[in-house]
Every structure is written in structure tokens, then in C-alpha cells.
From TrEMBL, chain A:
Residues that bind Mn(2+) 1: 284, 298
Source species of the chain: Thermobrachium celere DSM 8682
Descriptive protein name: Carbamoyl phosphate synthase large chain
Subunit structure: Composed of two chains; the small (or glutamine) chain promotes the hydrolysis of glutamine to ammonia, which is used by the large (or ammonia) chain to synthesize carbamoyl phosphate. Tetramer of heterodimers (alpha,beta)4.
Positions that bind ATP 2: 710, 749, 751, 755, 780-783, 823, 835
Lineage: Bacteria, Bacillati, Bacillota, Clostridia, Eubacteriales
UniProtKB/TrEMBL annotation, chain B:
Name of this protein: Carbamoyl phosphate synthase small chain
Species per Swiss-Prot/TrEMBL record: Thermobrachium celere DSM 8682
Protein EC: 6.3.5.5
A Pfam family recorded for this sequence: GATase
Keyword terms: Amino-acid biosynthesis, Arginine biosynthesis, ATP-binding, Glutamine amidotransferase, Ligase, Nucleotide-binding, Pyrimidine biosynthesis
Length: 1057, 349
């Protein structure tokens, strides 16, 4: 059936802010969907609250609403836009749940909106565990013995009957939130109770644990005529019980014979036929490693993280094809874009191995519980392609940016065998390295497989790498002849790893490779294993003889991407990278992207002229550059991942477009930069590096509290804290020097002023500041975690002028060509500079969208030599917009056990939403709403504030009282409130936890005494609250804004940007 | 031990030999299936061919006693990127290396199989020699010249007629190198089978008075099988006839159609075929180097390949005659087309 001509206007719902379990993959699918609809001449209305996405660009959809994703907001948009159709499955679980809700509430019917693609009834058959289970029974598909319970008692009864361990899975939540494995009744009670609260329909599935079985996934597509194909299957290296998002995954499956492969393929197709999918679907199985016994775990009747991975792993654009199916096409009518000869109705054949490795935030959250389970904890992932498993695995490992270039990390060297075996028993983020260490110590494959339940095949592959690493240790540089060196390179060994094991220099290996002519060849990802001629410009490196890349004579630019999504370097950088590529295309350059993140738009092979799916290390990047010989390389948009390549590439004589390596260093080297500021007569907070506790105390007396303290060797606010008195400082320094006494601790005066931020473009002479942003929370909370307001609301013209002046001076002094991000503090009419980044920052998409200034495009043109004054957006500060916009951070702390919730200098947020309005209150109301807090519904507030904040809190509490909020407070806070005649109810810690557990509280206000102290009651309260989906405010600045919004009783509207 | 693949066009790939270390010659073809190497090795249709697997890791799940399509591997040589020496699967009873050794077949690993595949795709299928010596191209060409696969069917067909009991329809099977799963598919449906050697005359077939005649798959060029075509002609109109792969091609030739060689064949588990009567597309398992180029006048096309539009199935306009080019019995490959066997049986008397 061809295009359905009745479809004229389609509403697409995005997935909202990036949270653990829902990341950039839905920007990729949503963007593909919008473009697939638009190219049919059909109008697209897009709603997403996340401004850092490509999908919310004007070029992608016809009408873009960056608005909170709630049913009420969506109804308003539907009322205004009157779409005839809704495409439900592109916005992850969020989009799907909203579509179901719109349907259930009769809103779709009221406005005559037809759901295209997989129908609501089918979605429900796939999502509702009870319905799904019934259906599976009907079609004879085995499921794991399980029961849906809606209360604690039934759960306990059922678990007793089937026996422990049992798995607990709440219905309708993201990334398995609230689930877990219970070994006994105690554990079951705790997890089940939480799961019942978190499920939006109060349903939890308890199932018999099949721990130790293999987890296998199939990505399936079905059209309205019932044509069905499987795009890809994937094998999780970790056994069932580890969330697939937290598992190392390999595609295609490696240990399944054709019999098992086809058995599960047939099951997948039978399942999606019975569910009635029209589009994409993911099916997960548990497979007994010792028989043909299998069980269906679950399906996702939509595109997913796995489908994004499968798309990148095979070259088959699942979201796009699913969208075409929704528009009426059948699979045999849709062209395969890769070959342009065959159709979408076929199954890709791979002639390479794909490995995906999760990226966890544990480097940031060192106290987090790192045991992997059914709750996903990874913020992002890397993918690597090789012609053998070892190569793909090692490429993946070095893509993670965890300092590992081989399977040997020093961390486990001192552990005893027993300790290592104990550690690897529970799956954790470092399992791969522990397995390697065990093999290194001679533990046999069988035993490790028994402990870990990882298939022997994979352990043997890891062993192969370890054996070769050990072999290298006994060699020296002169032992490496061409054949030998090629063997290591074929197994994916990096130059750096080889050098490390040989105790040689990386450059020696590089030189040797050049002398012996051992260079990578690049192969194409073509969906068909070479059977048909293909036109995809999508390549990966491998060490073989035949290279498939045709290098053109065009003038080309290489753009370095930002790698896996992590806290502090998220989707914003992918946004910038993609826009850079689009701008370069407009300027007539051939564009080349290098990146390793399968979730993103930048790794969609339709984006750039060529895509190299490679690790972003010096070696891998230089290999591509040496092959392509581009005019230049752009590093400014790939975050720290790209910027840190500057020195190396510069040394190799590669042209870095825009700000040079030397200039980047000037901005990043603390001492050099301090000198520069001094020379420019610009202030920064006083500070010193100290080497001992006593020295620190001395310095504190000199500078005065409060102090900002941090270890000197880390970036991005890791380990950074504010100390307010000597006790706190002593505690911090003791801990810090205990961990590491070889490096100093940096102590800076903490200035509790207003934080101001700019992203500016400089052409070396003049600057353009698209907008001056103000942070709602005072300095001391990481800029990525504070609410950002544009235009700045409470900054005087004088300070604004100074911001411009300083930006000009700094940009010129460094010699910035392109992007610069500067963070200031205004305190008592003085302006201090606290941070400068010689690159695009995370606020670029936000400020681009709200000002309408195409920042990335302008910066790209400047980097290529154009002058700001000729580009058409003027210089200095761009005119302020009429509309007020706020960027509100969103956190995933509820998914990370034991992680501190309170905000501080260490960034914690995973995503952001936009709130826009005619007034600040309207913008804030919508911003908070998008971030999950409906201020209008806040009635019961729990408060426990620290001594520093008590008096300031009195005023706010009073105002809350007046609006009709009930306040519950702990002892200290209650006493102060009562003394000041503010009505509040006293609750002790236990009662507080109880109230929160029962969900009887709408908002928790808790300003912490000291971060990272797990013993304190405050920590427990904060954790309990986020785990129960109750918002926690840990700064009175944020509360003040909330109270203001409460008082203003705002009405809101929806706006097209 | 180093070994070389020398192709007819002079291209040489150097890798390592495994399995049985003895020179071989054959027609070099590639298969794009990611699983099912054991079924491929034992599929008699590959007789005379050196098979290259495009998926790089082969042997991961080892070799078992069950997944065989005939008694022994039939390929002349087996080329993989990486041969797995530590297979892992609960049914695994030996590794690929030993299996090939025991069956006197040479394997070649460690070559750029993707490059080889692309050469075969661009130039077309050609002959090749796997050698352990430093052989020059002229010597290789001589070996290739002396290689003929014209007797392939005679080498893989059953030596003697045999019976398989069943309560259902009686099917006379012409064995040109039949895959075991075809037989299993009929047995599953309760059929009684009499399996004949390819040399059996039409009279012998008619003597057992079958309800249906089945023409099996098999190796080689159908046009070489003149005698068999004669016998099939005699059966037309006398008994319902169905066929798969080579059987389908032979039917076409018997009815006055023509067959032709494909440039590089269809070999894999991911081939989309459109069933024109159902207006639905299925993913099929395929293994053929020839196809029906001219469809006989009395036949109508029932299936086409979605990739290149070639004929994948045909049915007689009046008589109970029906055949498909692809492999509904799968093994390896998707099971989506099992329904074809039911359609076959509907034609039985």
C-alpha cells in the first residue's frame, strides 16, 4: 500500500530531557521520523521539552514546540495545531506513555487525531504485562513464571510459591527504574514497595529469576500488510539479570547455532504478528545455555536504544523505515538507501563484529553502588566495529575515555585471587577488567564462566587478548617485525597499549608502523556483506589489505564528535557537531565526522559526506586524517573529548581550524591563565594549592571561609566541594590526602555571588555574544546543574557592559577564533571570572534556540576565516529577545543507588528542559513542569535546612504558609520556624522518612550540611525522596523561585519557537 | 601453515590452511548467512564448490551431530576470515578444524573475505585453487581447466532407492542431492516417501504409483542433466510434480523454458521473495547459481526475488505442477516459508 493520502499533518512527541534510560537515541529516531514525514510533503508538528536536540530545530520539523511533556500541554498544542495523526513510538517510553494517556483520556478522539504506526491497542498488548502474558500464553510462547501484583502481600505470597531469587519489574517506567532482584523476603519487601509506587499504573511483575541464562535481543519490523523482518539480533555478554543498557552487547549473536537463531527469530515474528506491531519493535529473550529452552522477557513496541544501536550496527535505518510504514508504505515499497537497488524488505547481513560497551557515571559518583542489575545506570554507550571480536572490544574499551587502552588496569593488581573472584561474582562496571586479571593470574576459562555466567566463547576471546598482552611484555621493540606487528594490530591493539607492554614510546610504535607499512584499511558498513554495490559513506578501520574508501580531491573538513554521553558532556555537543557539519556543507566543503556514539544524530550516515565510526583517540583520529588529508580539523564542538586532541594533532602538523592548540592551552593551563587575567586586570577568586591539612588550614585563615576545594588533577568539578568552616575543611582535606597525597588540593575563595555565563563567538578581533545568561542559583552549584535564565533578569547595564568588555579582552588576549564560554561571578558590583572554555559549551543549543542566532554556523564560518561583521548578526551583544527562557536541569540520581542528591560544584544532572514564557514566572513554571514538578500542585512541603540557611528560610516558609502550603520540619528547622511564628508541624527523622515513603509530601527542601556523608539523616531523606519521585530542592535560591511562581499563580500558554 | 587461494582471474589471497591439508579446486562462491555453516557444509548443492563465508567468525558454536543436511560435508573447500578453535555451545561435539580434517576438506582462514566477496560480486563466480605450494597462475589455470562439475548430481544422489514409512501421502522423491530437512519436512506432515536415485527412469517412478513427485535440490548446471529432463518430461501430466531449487530449474527446462547462470548466485539466509498470490514478502534461504530465465508458456510466475526480480516460483496454469527456487525447508535460514510444503501437498492425489 502506498502513502496514505489522508495524512496531512502529523504530531510527533519527543522523549524529553536526557535521563538514564532515555538518551540521545530518541533524538536520532525523532529526527529521522520528522525528516521521513517531511520529505513526503506532510506537515510535522513536534513537541519536546529538550532544547539540546536536533529534532527541535526549525529545519527538522515545520512547527516546533519546546514545551513540557504533559497531557495538559499536549492537549493545548493539539487544540491549536489540529494534527490529523499522531506518531507515537519515536519518543521512547515517555512519548509512548503520553500517547496512551491522550488516547485513554479521550483527547485524541475529541480532536479526531488518528494514531499512525503501531496502534494504541497493540501498544497496550505489548506494554501491559497482564495483557502481554495472556497473549503469549495464547500463541504458545514461553514466558518466565510470573505474576502481576498490585500490593505487597500478594507479591510475598507469590514469591514464596515460585521460590527465590525473584525479579521485580514495575510496569510503565523508564529503563527498568524501581526494579531489582530479591534474594529473600526482606529484599523483596523493599524493592516491591518502591516498584509499586514508581509504576504509573501501580502494577509490578514478579518473576522467577532465570539468572545465568543468555540474554538475546531481536530488532523486528512489521508493516500493515504483515510483512515482517528482523533487522538484527544481539547477544548480551552479561547474562540475564543485567539490564541490556548496562551490558556489553555484541551483534550479531556469536554463540547461537542456526537452530537457536531461527527459533528465536521465528518467535520474535510470531510475537509481533500477534501484538499487531506496525513499525519497529524490540524483543528480548532469555535462552538457557544448556538446552533449547527459552523464555520471552519483554518487548518494546517502539523504537528504542537497542534499535538505534541496531541501526548503526547494520546500516539499516529502523526509525525511518518505521515512520514510512506509519505513513502507509509496506516494506517492499521502501527503498534500501544503502544500496539504492534493493528494498527495505530484507535482513541485513553483517561481515564484521559490533561491540557496544556502556559508559557509567561512576567516575563522577564514586560512592555509588556499582553492582549492575535490572535497573539501568549507564548514561551512554560506545560502539566499535571490527573484523574480529578482539578488535571491536579493544576499540570499544579505548572509546570509553576511562584511561584504558588495553585490558590491563593497575587497579586490581594488588587484589588477591579470592578478592577478585568475589568482586566478579556480582556483575559490575569493571567486570571486563577483573575477568582479564583473573585470566592473567591463570584462572581457567571454565571457572570464570561458572562464576560470571559469561559464555566461554567470550572468556576465551578475552583470554586471547590477555595472552597476547602477556606475550608483548616479554618482547622488545626490535622483536616486532611486520608480520608480528600486524597480528597485534589485527587484534585491535592500540599503539599505546603495545608501547606500554613493550615499555617503549607510543611514537616508536607509530614510527615502526609507518616504516613497515602497517596501516589500517577502512571497510564499509553496507547492510549486505558486500553482496551488492553500496553507496553508504559509513566506514570503520581494520587491519586488512583492501581499503574501500575513495578519497576525493574536494576541500574537506573533519569534525570530531564528542563520544559517549556522560554527565557534563551530553547531547548538546552532538547538536553542535551536527550543526557544524551542516554549516560546512552549506559552505561547500566535503564533511567528515569521526565519532563512536551509536545513539546520536551525528553518527547517522546521512548527516555528513563521510562517517568514520572510530574511537576518538590520538591514534585512531590521526589515522583517518592522514588518509583523508583534509583542509583542516574542527575540535571546538566535540567537548573536552575533541579539545584534548589539540596538542597532539598540532604537533603532527594538522591544521586545527579556529583557536589554535597553543591558545587552547593558554586558556586551560591554570597558571598561564591566571597570569593572563592579571595582565588584563581581570579578577578571579583568590586561591592556592596546598599539600597538607595544616597548610590548608593556614591558607583558610588567610583567604577566609567559605572555600571551594577540589583535587588538582581532575576536571569537570569532580570531587569539588564547598567548605564553610574549619571542621568541614579539615574533614575534606583529610579524606583527600588519604586518597592521594601526591597531588595538591586547590583551595579557592568561594564567592557566593550571582553567576553569569556567556557563549561568545570571536573572530580574533571582535566578539558576538548571542545572549547573556544568568544562573538562578548562586555560584557554588555547578553551572550545568543550576537553572539558567535568558535574558538575564537582574543584572545591571553596567555589569552587562563589563561582561562584554571582559569577553572581548579575554577572547582577544587568548586569540580565540570561534567559540568561547566564560563563566563570571558578580559580587558586590565586582565581576570575577571563574572559568573559561575555549570551545562550545552545553548552553549553545539553548541560547541558539531562544535567540535565533545560529551560533554554530557563525562560529564555523569564523573558523574558516570570515569576519563577524560580514556575517549579518552584528558584533557585541545581540539584541535581547522579548520572550523569557529558562533551562532547568534534570537529574537521574534516583537510578543511582547511594548517590548524593544535593547540588554542589560537582555536576550531577543528565539533561535539561526548556521553559519559555512572556514572564519569568511563566517560563519557570513551565521549566519546572517539564522537569517533573508541577508547582501548582505543591501543597505539603517537608523542610530540613542547615544552620546557615535557617533564617533565610523563615521568610520563604512564611510566604509558603500564606499561599496555603503545609510545612513539615525537622527539629532544628521547626524550632526556628516556631520561634519566628511560622506555622509548621514537627516531625522526627523517622516520621519524615515515613511521610516521604508514603508519598504524602509534594516537595522536599533540604539544604545539606556536608555532601557525601552517607550516614547523615539528610542524605537518607534526600535519597528516599528521589526514589519516590518527589522533587528535592537543595538550594534556597531554587526554592525562592518556586515560591515566587506559586505566588504569581501563573497561567501559561504554548509557543512555537 | 600458509596456503593460497588462486582465482581464475589471477588474483591471489594468502592465508593459513586448516582442516585437511590438501590442494583443492572448485567454483568459488560466497554465502552471506551469519549462522548455519554446518548446514552449508553438508548441503549437497554445494558439491564442487569452494564456499566463502562472508561473516568473519565461523566455528563459534562448533559442530554437532544433528544439524547436518547430508551424511558428510560436500564442499570442495571452505574459506573463512577466522576459524574458531574454542567453540562453545551445549551441543558442540567437535570443532570445525577437526570436522574438516576428518572429512578430508581443506579450509583457508585469515584472508580478507570481504575483498574476495567483492571480487566475486564484480567479476562473477569463478574457479579457484586452494594450494599449499607457491603455485604460479598458469599451473593453477591448468588445474582449473581440468576441473569439471558436470557429474555433480551423480556423485551426491542416493546410490539406491529407499523407503520411509508414513501414514499420509506417498511421495516419490527424485534425489539430485536432497537436503535432509526437505525429507524431514515431508515426514513431519506424515508422508510416506520413496526416494529414487537421479538415474531412476520415469517408469520406476510410476511403478510405485506415488501421489506426488518431488524434484529435489542439487548441485550444478541443470542443462547438463539431459537424461533427467527427459524422464521428467515423461512424468508431466501423469502425476502432480513439485520441486525445489534444481528441481524447479529442471521442471522449467522440461516444460520448454530456459535457465541461465547468475553472475554470482544467491547464497544466504536474507533473500526477500514476494509471493505474488498472497501479495506478501518473505525472507528466504537461498542457494543457487542458476535461475529460470524464460518461464515455460504454460507456467505462471508465483514468486519473484525482491532484490533482482528473478523468478523464484512458478505454477502450471492447468496441471498440478508447482515449484520454487528458494529453500522453504530453511536449514540454514528463516522458517517463514514452511507453508510451501503444505501447498505442495495440496497438489498430491
Amino acid at each position: 500500500m502506498p502513502l496514505n493520502r489522508n495524512i496531512k499533518k502529523v504530531l510527533v512527541i519527543g522523549s524529553g530531557p536526557i535521563v538514564i534510560g532515555q538518551a540521545a537515541e530518541f533524538d536520532y529516531s525523532g529526527t529521522q521520523a520528522c525528516m521521513a514525514i517531511k520529505e513526503e510533503g506532510i506537515e510535522v508538528v513536534l513537541v519536546n521539552s529538550n532544547p539540546a536536540t536536533i529534532m527541535t530545530d526549525k529545519e527538522v520539523a515545520d512547527k516546533v514546540y519546546i514545551e513540557p511533556l504533559t497531557v495538559e500541554v499536549l492537549e493545548r498544542i493539539i487544540e491549536k495545531e489540529r494534527p490529523d495523526s499522531l506518531l507515537a513510538g519515536m519518543g521512547g517510553q515517555t512519548g509512548l506513555n503520553l500517547a496512551v494517556e491522550l488516547y485513554e483520556k479521550g483527547i485524541l478522539q475529541k480532536y479526531n487525531v488518528n494514531v499512525i504506526g503501531t496502534k494504541i491497542e497493540a501498544i497496550k498488548r505489548g506494554e501491559d504485562r497482564e495483557l502481554f502474558r495472556e497473549l503469549m500464553k495464547k500463541i504458545n510462547q514461553p514466558i518466565i513464571e510470573s505474576e502481576i501484583v498490585t500490593n505487597l502481600e500478594d507479591g510475598i505470597k507469590f514469591a514464596k510459591r515460585i521460590g527465590y531469587p525473584v525479579i521485580i519489574r514495575p510496569a510503565y517506567t523508564l529503563g527498568g527504574t524501581g526494579g531489582g532482584i530479591a534474594e529473600d523476603e526482606e529484599e523483596l519487601k523493599r524493592i516491591l514497595d518502591m516498584g509499586l509506587k514508581l509504576s504509573s499504573i501501580g502494577q509490578v511483575l514478579i518473576e522467577k529469576s532465570v539468572k545465568g541464562w543468555k540474554e538475546i535481543e531481536y530488532e523486528v519490523i512489521r508493516d500493515s500488510q504483515g510483512n515482517c523482518i528482523t533487522v538484527c539480533n544481539m547477544e548480551n555478554i552479561d547474562p540475564v539479570g543485567v539490564h541490556t543498557g548496562d551490558s556489553i552487547v555484541v551483534a550479531p549473536s556469536q554463540t547461537l547455532s542456526d537452530k537457536e537463531y531461527q527459533m528465536l527469530r521465528t518467535a520474535s515474528i510470531d510475537i509481533i504478528n500477534s501484538v499487531g506491531i506496525e513499525g519497529g519493535c524490540n524483543v528480548q529473550f532469555a535462552l538457557n545455555p544448556n538446552s533449547f529452552q527459552y523464555a520471552v522477557i519483554e518487548i518494546n513496541p517502539r523504537v528504542s536504544r537497542s534499535s538505534a544501536l541496531a541501526s548503526k550496527a547494520t546500516g539499516y535505518p529502523i526509525a525511518k523505515v518505521a515512520t514510512k510504514i506509519a505513513l502507509g508504505y509496506t516494506l517492499d515499497e521502501i527503498k534500501n538507501e544503502v544500496t539504492n537497488k534493493t528494498y527495505a524488505c530484507f535482513e541485513p547481513s553483517l561481515d564484521y563484529v559490533v561491540v557496544k560497551i556502556p559508559k557509567w557515571p561512576f567516575d563522577k559518583f564514586t560512592d555509588a553502588e556499582k553492582t549492575l542489575g535490572t535497573k539501568m545506570m549507564a548514561t551512554g554507550e560506545v560502539m566499535a566495529i571490527g573484523r574480529n571480536f578482539e578488535e571491536a572490544l579493544l576499540k570499544g574499551v579505548r572509546s570509553l575515555e576511562i584511561g584504558a587502552y588495553s585490558l590491563e588496569i593497575s587497579k586490581f593488581k594488588n587484589d588477591s585471587l579470592d578478592e577478585l573472584k568475589e568482586k566478579v561474582k556480582r556483575p559490575n562496571d569493571e567486570g571486563l577488567f577483573i575477568v582479564a586479571e583473573l585470566l592473567r593470574r591463570g584462572v581457567d576459562v571454565e571457572e570464570i564462566s561458572n562464576i560470571t555466567k559469561i559464555d566461554k566463547f567470550f572468556i576465551n576471546k578475552i583470554k586471547n587478548i590477555v595472552d597476547r598482552e602477556e606475550e608483548l611484555k616479554g618482547l622488545s621493540l626490535k622483536d616486532l617485525n611486520k608480520e608480528k606487528l600486524r597480528e597485534y594490530k589485527k587484534l585491535g591493539f592500540s599503539d599505546r597499549a603495545i608501547a606500554h607492554f613493550l615499555k617503549a614510546e607510543v611514537e616508536d610504535i607509530k614510527r615502526l608502523r609507518r616504516e613497515l607499512n602497517v596501516n589500517p584499511a577502512y571497510k564499509m558498513v553496507d547492510t549486505c556483506a558486500g553482496e551488492f554495490e553500496a553507496e553508504t559513506p559509513y566506514y570503520y578501520s581494520t587491519y586488512e589489505d583492501f581499503d574501500e574508501v575513495v578519497v576525493t580531491d574536494n576541500k574537506k573538513v573533519v569534525v570530531i564528535g564528542s563520544g559517549p554521553i556522560r554527565i557534563g558532556q551530553g547531547i548538546e555537543f552532538d547538536y553542535s557537531s551536527v550543526h557544524c557539519v551542516l554549516s560546512l556543507k552549506k559552505l561547500g566543503f566535503e564533511t567528515i565526522i569521526i565519532n563512536n556514539n551509536p545513539e546520536t544524530v551525528s553518527t547517522d550516515f546521512n548527516m555528513s559526506d563521510k562517517l568514520y565510526f572510530e574511537p576518538l583517540t590520538e591514534e585512531d583520529v590521526l589515522n583517518v586524517i592522514e588518509k583523508e588529508k583534509p583542509y583542516g580539523v574542527i575540535l571546538q564542538f566535540g567537548g573536552q573529548t575533541a579539545i584534548k586532541l589539540a596538542k597532539y594533532l598540532d604537533k603532527k602538523g594538522i591544521r586545527i581550524l579556529g583557536t589554535s592548540s597553543e591558545q587552547i592551552d593558554l586558556a586551560e593551563d591554570r597558571e598561564r591563565f591566571d597570569e593572563l587575567l592579571e595582565g588584563l586586570n581581570i579578577k578571579r577568586p583568590k586561591g592556592r594549592a596546598v599539600w597538607s591539612v595544616e597548610e590548608g588550614i593556614e591558607v583558610s585563615k588567610e583567604i577566609g571561609f567559605p572555600l571551594l576545594v577540589r583535587p588538582s588533577y581532575v576536571l569537570g568539578g569532580q570531587g569539588m566541594e564547598i567548605t564553610r568552616d574549619e571542621d568541614e575543611l579539615r574533614y575534606y582535606l583529610n579524606c583527600a590526602f588519604e586518597k592521594d597525597n601526591k597531588n595538591p588540593v586547590l583551595i579557592d575563595k568561594y564567592i557566593c555571588g550571582r553567576e553569569i555565563e556567556v557563549d561568545a563567538i570571536s573572530d580574533g578581533e571582535e566578539v558576538l555574544i548571542p545572549g547573556i545568561m544568568e544562573h538562578l542559583e548562586s555560584a557554588g552549584i555547578h553551572s550545568g546543574d543550576s537553572i539558567t535564565i535568558y535574558p538575564a533578569q537582574s543584572i545591571s547595564q553596567k555589569i552587562k557592559d563589563k561582561v562584554l568588555e571582559y569577553t572581548k579582552r579575554i577572547s582577544k588576549a587568548i586569540g580565540i577564533k570561534g567559540m568561547i564560554n566564560i563563566q563570571f561571578i558578580e559580587y558586590k558590583d565586582e565581576l570575577y571570572v571563574i572559568e573559561v572554555n575555549p570551545r562550545a559549551s552545553r548552553t549553545v543549543p539553548f541560547i541558539s534556540k531562544v535567540t535565533g542566532v545560529p551560533i554554530v554556523e557563525i562560529a564555523t564560518r569564523v573558523m574558516l576565516g570570515e569576519k563577524l561583521k560580514n556575517i549579518g548578526y552584528g558584533v557585541d551583544v545581540y539584541k535581547e529577545s522579548e520572550i523569557v527562557a529558562v533551562k532547568v536541569p534534570v537529574f537521574s540520581t534516583e537510578k543511582l543507588k547511594n548517590v548524593e542528591v544535593a547540588l554542589g560544584p560537582n555536576m550531577k544532572s543528565t539533561g535539561e528542559v526548556l521553559g519559555i514564557g512572556r514572564s519569568l514566572s511563566e517560563a519557570l513554571y513551565k521549566g519546572f513542569l517539564g522537569a517533573g514538578l508541577d508547582i501548582k500542585k505543591v501543597k505539603k512541603v517537608f523542610a530540613a535546612v542547615n544552620d546557615y540557611d535557617k533564617y533565610e528560610f523563615v521568610e520563604l516558609a512564611n510566604r509558603m504558609n500564606e499561599i496555603g502550603c503545609e510545612i513539615y520540619a525537622t527539629k532544628g528547622t521547626w524550632e526556628v520556624l516556631t520561634r519566628e511564628k511560622v506555622e509548621a508541624e514537627f516531625v522526627d527523622d523517622n516520621k519524615a522518612l515515613n511521610l516521604i515513603s508514603k508519598g504524602d509530601i509534594d516537595l522536599v527542601i533540604n539544604t545539606p550540611t556536608k555532601g557525601n556523608d552517607l550516614e547523615r539523616e539528610g542524605f537518607k531523606i534526600r535519597r528516599r525522596a528521589v526514589e519516590r519521585n518527589i522533587k528535592v530542592l537543595t538550594s534556597l535560591d531554587t526554592l525562592r523561585a518556586v515560591v515566587k511562581v506559586m505566588e504569581n499563580k501563573v497561567e501559561y500558554d504554548v509557543y512555537v519557537l | 601453515m600458509n596456503a593460497k587461494l588462486v582465482l581464475e582471474n589471477g588474483v591471489v589471497f594468502t592465508g593459513r590452511a586448516f582442516g585437511y591439508l590438501q590442494e583443492t579446486v572448485g567454483e568459488v562462491v560466497f554465502n552471506t548467512g551469519m549462522t548455519g555453516y554446518q548446514e552449508v557444509l553438508t548441503d549437497p548443492s554445494y558439491y564442487g564448490q569452494i564456499v566463502v563465508m562472508t561473516y568473519p567468525l565461523i566455528g563459534n558454536y562448533g559442530i554437532n551431530y544433528e544439524d547436518v543436511e547430508s551424511q558428510s560435508p560436500k564442499v570442495k573447500g571452505f574459506i573463512v576470515k577466522e576459524n574458531c578453535t574454542f567453540p562453545s555451545n551445549f551441543r558442540c561435539s567437535m570443532d570445525l578444524d577437526d570436522y574438516l580434517k576428518n572429512n578430508k576438506i581443506i579450509g583457508l582462514e585469515g584472508i580478507d573475505t570481504r575483498a574476495l566477496t567483492k571480487i566475486l560480486r564484480d567479476t562473477g563466480t569463478m574457479k579457484g585453487v586452494i594450494t599449499l605450494e607457491d603455485m604460479d597462475i598458469n599451473r593453477a589455470k591448468e588445474i582449473m581447466k581440468n576441473f569439471s562439475n558436470k557429474d555433480a548430481v551423480l556423485n551426491v544422489t542416493t546410490k539406491q532407492k529407499y523407503h520411509i514409512d508414513g501414514m499420509g501421502k506417498h511421495i516419490a522423491v527424485y534425489d539430485f542431492g536432497i537436503k535432509q530437512n526437505i525429507i524431514r519436512s515431508f515426514i513431519k506432515r506424515g508422508c510416506r516417501l520413496t526416494v529414487f536415485p537421479a538415474t531412476a527412469s520415469y517408469n520406476e517412478i510410476l511403478e510405485v504409483n506415488p501421489d506426488l513427485v518431488f524434484l529435489s535440490n542439487g548441485p550444478g548446471d541443470p542443462e547438463d542433466l539431459k537424461l533427467i529432463i527427459q524422464n521428467i518430461k515423461e512424468l508431466l501430466g501423469k502425476k502432480p510434480i513439485v520441486g525445489i531449487c534444481l528441481g524447479h530449474q529442471l521442471l522449467a527446462l522440461s516444460l520448454g523454458g530456459r535457465t541461465k547462470k547468475l553472475k554470482y548466485g544467491h547464497r544466504g539466509c536474507n533473500h526477500p521473495v514476494k509471493d505474488l498470490t498472497k501479495n506478501k514478502t518473505y525472507i528466504t534461504s537461498q542457494n543457487h547459481g542458476y535461475y529460470v530465465d524464460v518461464v515455460p508458456e504454460d507456467m505462471e510466475v508465483t514468486h519473484i526475488s525482491l532484490n533482482d526480480g528473478t523468478v523464484e516460483g512458478m505454477r502450471h496454469k492447468k496441471l498440478p505442477i508447482y515449484s520454487v527456487q528458494f529453500h522453504p525447508e530453511a536449514c540454514p535460514g528463516p522458517k517463514d516459508n514452511d507453508y510451501i510444503f503444505d501447498e505442495f501437498l495440496k497438489l498430491a492425489l
